[in-house]
Amino acid sequence: MECYCNVALPVPLRTTFTYAVPEQLCAEVQPGSRVLVPFRKKTMVGVVVEITGTVPQGTQIRGIQKVLDVVPALTPKLLELGHWIANYYLAPIGEVFRAMLPPVTDISRKRVMVLTEAGRALAEKLKLGTTLTDLASAEVDFLQRVLGNKRGLTFGTGGKVGIAAESLQKLQKRGYLEIRDTVQGRKRKMQRVVAWKGNSGTEEKNDGKEQRNGHGSNEQNGGVNPPLHGAKLREKEERIRGLLETERGPLAMPQLLKLAQVSRALIERMLRDGLLESWEEGIDPVEDPFDSGYTPPAHMLNETQESAFKAIRARFELAAFGVQLLHGVTGSGKTEVYLRSVQDTLARGKTAIILVPEIALTLWVGRQCRAWFGARFEGVAVLHSALSDVERAREWWRVRNGEARVVVGTRSAIFAPLDNLGLVIVDEEQESSYKQEETPRYHGRDVAIVRAKLENALALLGSATPSLETYHHAMNGKYELLTMASRVENRNLAAVEIVDMRTDFQQTQKVNPISQTLHVGITECLEFHTQALVLINRRGYSWSVLCRSCGASVQCENCSISMTYHKSRNRLECHYCGSIKAVPKVCPKCDSKYVHFFGEGSEHLEERLRKEFPGTRIARLDRDTARTKQQYQETLGAFASGALDILVGTQMLAKGHDFQRVTLVGVVYADSALSLPDFRAAERTFQLLTQVAGRAGRGELPGRVLIQTYYPEHYAVQDAVRQDYVSFYEREVHFRRMMMYPPFTSLANVIVRDTNLEKAIRWSRKLSEYFAPQDGKSARILGPASAPLARLKKEHRYQFLLKSPKKSALTKILSGTLAFCEANEIPQTAVLVDMDPLTLL
Ligand code: ADP
Ligand code: ZN
Ligand code: ZN
Asked: CA–CA separation, 802 vs 371, rounded Å?
C-alpha cells in the first residue's frame, strides 16, 4: 500500500505539500528525510515533515521521485527546532529547513571500512609490535591498512578489499571494524606543496649557486648582469629558506609565491637543483596549514577560571537545561574555560557545539579543538559559509554519522546534526553576525538557547561586553552569571587614553586621522619592535564624493546612500547593493569641477601610514583585502608571526584574536557610529571600543590604546576608557527603560517594499488598516513611515515598528499580518518581518 507525506519545500510559501509515496519507498521515508519531488515544472529537494495516512481530497497528488537519505538528514529534535524558528520568526518552513541543511551537492557516497575505537587502539598496539593476539597475520596487516586510511578504506570493484570475507566478518564481529557510508567530494582538489630540502654545507651551497647562475636563462631578468643577479638571488633564496624551514614549514605553491614574493621560475629552478622538494597533496579544506605541529599551550586554570569552570560543571551535574553567562574581561582566558567545558562534556559521553562570530575565528578555535580533542575522539568538524558546497556537505555528514563530536562554526553551525548534545557555547554572544539578515531571519544565539532547551543541554554564552538583553537576564536571575574580572597572570588591562581630535586640530591646523599622539605612539612601537593595530570603521578610500559647488553627493542608483570611493579599483561602490560607478570628473548635477572626496576609509588610512612610516611593514585587513579565507588567514598569520609591524583595518581586527606582541591600538573615528539613528548606537560603540582595547597588552608587554574622538564626553566612550562594563550597562539600561526599548520591550520591524513606489505606498496603506485598530492594545504600532534607508537595492521601503512588553502579543499580531496580506493580495515577498531586529535601518 502506498502512503502519503507532507513535504516542506524551499519556496517562499508558508505551507507544506502532500505527496504520495510509492509502496517500495514507504519503508525508507521518515520525518526528516530529504526527498526529490516534482513541483510545478521543476524537481525540488524537500524535507518530509510528517507521514500521513489521510488522503487530501480533490487535488491531484503527485508522487515523490526519490528518497535522498538512508538516515534522515534531520533528527527529530532538529525538525522541532525548525518548526520553532518558522513560528517565531515567521519564516516559511521550507526555507528554514534549507538554512539548516547542507547544500544539496553532487556528492557521491562510498561504502568504506573504518576502525572503531577498540579497533584503533588494537591497531596502534600492533603497530608497536605487540603480538598478543589471536588474529591471523593477514588480518593484522589489514587492520594496519585501515589505520593508514584516515577517511576509511574504500571497497574495490566488486566489493573486494583484499581480505577473505570470513576475516572481514570476524573483525566486524569483534567490534574492531565498521562499515558505513561516507560522503566524498567527487574530486579531491590537488595542490603542489613545496618544502625546503637543502642542505649541504655553506660552501657547497655557494658552488651550487654559481652553477645555477650559469644556466639561469629562464629567470625573469636572466643573466644580464651576473654578479648583481647572483646577489639578488641569494637574498631571495634566503627568504624562501627562512619561510620553509623556520617560519612556516612546507607551503602550498601559491602561498609560497605570495609570501616570498619570488617568481615561479625561481622555485622551479631551486627544485631542479635539489634545494627544494615538492609533492602533490589533496587540499583538505578543514585542515588549516598552521595545524601541523601545533600544540596548544596547556595551562592550569587559574583560580578565577577554576571557579567559573566549577560552576559550569556543577550545572552539568544537574543534567538539565540552563543558560550561563560567562562575563570575562578580554584576556581573562575564556577560551581555556570553553575547552575544559567541552572536554568535560565529551567525557560524559555527550557532544558540543562552539559558535564563534566569524570565519577567521573558526580556524583559531578549530585548531585548538583538534589539538585538544581531535586525536582522541577523531572528531572535530568545522562548519562555516566559506567552505565550498562539497566541503560543507562532507563536514555536515561527518557530524550526522557520528564521526565528529565537536562542532566549531559560525551562525548556521547551530544546526549541526549532533546527537546527544550536552553543551552549546556562544562566544562573543553580543556580535551582530549571529543575526541572519535574510530569510529565515533568526538570531544564532537565541536559537542556540532554544536548541539547548530542546536537548536538555547547557547554553554557555561568553563575552567581555554582553549584549544588554543577555546581561539583563543575568541580573534578573534568568541566566546564571559567572564573572572573570581579571586577566590571566594578573596582566593589566591596557591603559586607554582619549585623544580629543578637536585639540589635535587646534594644534596642527590639519585634518589628519592620524593624530600627533598616535603618530608618536606608532613611532615608539617601531623603535621597540613591537606591533601596532590601527582600527577604522569604514573600508574604501573616501566615504563619499561631494560637490563643493552645489553640495550634491554621488548617490547609489539603487539605494538612498552615498557611494564609497575605492582608489585601487578606481571606482565608486555601493556598500549595500554592490553596484559600481565610474569616478566623476565633474559634478553630475551642476557640471562644476569641484568634486571633493570626503571622509577617509581604511584604504586611505593605509596609504597615509605608508607615507608617514616609510619602510615599515604594513598590511590592511578589511573585506576588500580579505576576500577569501586564505587571504584572511595569511594576513593574520603574518601579523601573528611578526612579519608585519602595523596592521590597519576595520572591525574584523577587533574580535577575539590573541596577538602577543601588540602594544598599541589606535582607534580612528572611534565615535562614527554614535551619530547613527539607531537605539543600539551607544552599545555598539562601547562594545567595539572595549573589544579593540582588549587586543592590546595580551602578552607580557603592557598595552596602550588611543581612542580618537570628537565626543570625549559621551558615556559610551568614557566607560570604554575605564573598561567598566557594569557602569555602562547601568547607564544604558536606564536609557532603554525610559525609551521603552529592548530589553524592556520586544520589537518587531515590518518592512513593506517594492521596486515600484506606488505599489509600496499602496500596500503599506493597506497594511495600516490592519495595524491601526490594534495599536495601543497589547502593543504599540508605529508607522507606516519611510524607512531610514528609504531605498535599498532598487526597492522603496516603508516601515512599521511594533513594540510590546510581551513577545507573544507580537507573534500573534504578526501571524495575523500574514493572513491579512494573503486575504488582500499583498504579495508575501513584499512584506518583510524582522522579529527582534538588531538594526532599524
Ligand atoms: P579571552 O578570550 O578571555 O579574551 P583568551 O582565551 O584568548 O582570552 O586567553 C588569553 C591568553 O591567555 C591566551 O594566550 C591563553 O593561552 C592564555 N591563558 C589562558 N589561560 C591561562 C592560564 N591559566 N595561565 C596563563 N595563560 C593563560
Ligand atoms: Zn555640483
Ligand atoms: Zn546601492
From this structure: 48
Q: What is the pTM of this model?
A: 0.77
Confidence check: pLDDT of 39 > 70: yes
Query: Angle, nearest 10°, between helix axes 253-260 and 226-241?
Result: 120
Cβ atoms of residues 118 and 124 within 8 Å:
no
Which strands sit side by side in the sheet containing 66-67, from one edge to the other? 17-21, 3-8, 42-52, 34-39, 66-67
What's the chain's average pLDDT? 85
Four-residue CA torsion sign, 589, 595, 596, 600? positive
| Paired strand residues for 181 | 111
Tell me phi and psi for residue 826, to 5 degrees. -90, 120
Nearest to 177 by CA among 146, 133, 150, 145: 146
Distance of CA 442 to the CA centre of its chain: 15
What single string gives the DSSP state of each residue in 676-716? SS-TTHHHHHHHHHHHHHTTSS-SSS--EEEEEES-TTSHH
For residue 549, report the distance from its CA to the centre of ligand 2, in Å. 5
In 3D, which of 412, 428, 306 has the Cα closest to residue 361?
428
Cell of 302: 587559574
Measured by CA distance, the residue closest to atom 9 of ligand 1 is 333
Distance 793 CA to ligand 3 centre (A): 6
Q: pLDDT, tens digit, for every residue of 360-398? A: 788 878 888 888 887 554 589 999 887 877 788 888 888
Please provide residue 535's backbone torsions phi and psi, each rounded to the nearest 5 degrees: -110, 135
Check: CB of residue 802 under 8 Å from CB of residue 747: yes
* CA 587 – ligand 3 centroid, Å: 19
Q: Which residues line ligand 1 (CB under 6 A)?
A: 297, 299-302, 305, 328, 330-336, 488-489, 658, 694, 698
Give the closest ligand to the alpha carbon of residue 548.
Answer: 2
Res 227 pLDDT > 70: no
- In the reported structure, the alpha carbon of residue 655 is separated from the centroid of ligand 1 by a whole-number distance in angstroms of 15
For 96, residues 6+ apart whose C-beta sits below 8 A from its C-beta are: 8, 82, 85, 86, 440
Catalogue the E-assigned strands of 574-700: 580-581, 595-600, 618-621, 646-649, 662-668
Task: State which H helix or E strand residue 144 sits in.
Answer: helix 137-148
- What is the Cα–Cα distance from 214 to 212, expressed in whole angstroms? 5
Average pLDDT over residues 147-174: 75
Mutate to test the pocket of ligand 1, among 335, 465, 483, 725 (most ligand atoms within 8 A of CB): 335
> Whose CA is closest to atom 2 on ligand 1?
334
pLDDT at 248: 66
Cell of 735: 536609557
